[in-house]
Amino acid sequence: MCGRYQFSWEESRMLARIREAVRKAGAQAPRDEVFPSDGAPVLVLREGKVVPAVMGWGFPGMQGGRNVINARAETAEERPMFRDGVAARRCVVPATGFYEWDADKRRYLFRMPARTELYMAALYGVFGGEARYCILTTQANASVAPVHHRMPLVLRAQEVRPWLEDEQTARRLLHETPPELERRETDGQLRLW
DNA sequence: CCAGACGTTGTT
DNA sequence: GTCTGG
DNA sequence: CCAGACGTTGTT
DNA sequence: GTCTGG
């Protein structure tokens, strides 16, 4: 699944541009490491253009419950919480990578092989006047499986616009296997031996 | 027992 | 918070 | 997602 | 276990 990701504008001109755009629009600049409930840039389609917008990460759960940060791609089309988003409120989360933890709490950063921008398919909704997003997840592919059994629905760069633009294409992409990624272990916490 | 998914209202 | 699957 | 905090007291 | 902050 995906409970944290990296937004490193220093490593990506695209992300630097997105960051600058939202900053100029008056939104707070995203952190390098994005946590659930943070405000962060997502990409949406507006008048035929892919543009950034700042939203909060996670849908409010029922009865004041938890922040719902992920949606299963396999079932999102049927779930009441997500099905309208699949039809009409798709977005893309730009990142430089995402983190996963293994059973021993070792943390790994996953990136695109050429270290280009990593795009995660997501949905958004408006709750109490506040726009929020939820990242789609799918079964881990070969590159992620050694660490965790789920991963975000990573889109190839050329799939970003089709995901936003065309509902039928989006429904197909929900069932695609994401590209293989590069893995790097990071020091998630100090290990005193 | 645990891990993981899941409420509606924003739509290009 | 509840539910399911393991 | 993870890490860290949690309670102020009718009890053998 | 449940919640909060990051």
UniProtKB/TrEMBL annotation:
Q: What is its EC number?
A: 3.4.-.-
**Signal sequence, start to end:** none
| Gene3D superfamilies, sorted | SOS response associated peptidase-like (3.90.1680.10)
> Superkingdom of this entry's organism?
Bacteria
Molecular function as annotated in GO = lyase activity; peptidase activity; single-stranded DNA binding
Alphabetically, which GO biological process terms does the record hold?
Answer: protein-DNA covalent cross-linking repair; proteolysis
Keyword Lyase in record: yes
EC primary class: hydrolase
Query: Keyword annotations for this protein?
Result: Covalent protein-DNA linkage, DNA damage, DNA-binding, Hydrolase, Lyase, Protease
Coiled-coil segments, which residues? none
Family affiliation: Belongs to the SOS response-associated peptidase family.
PANTHER family linked to this entry: ABASIC SITE PROCESSING PROTEIN HMCES (PTHR13604:SF0), DC12-RELATED (PTHR13604)
Q: Identify this protein by name.
A: Abasic site processing protein
User: What is the organism of origin for this protein?
Assistant: Ruthenibacterium lactatiformans
Lineage from the top down? Bacteria, Bacillati, Bacillota, Clostridia, Eubacteriales
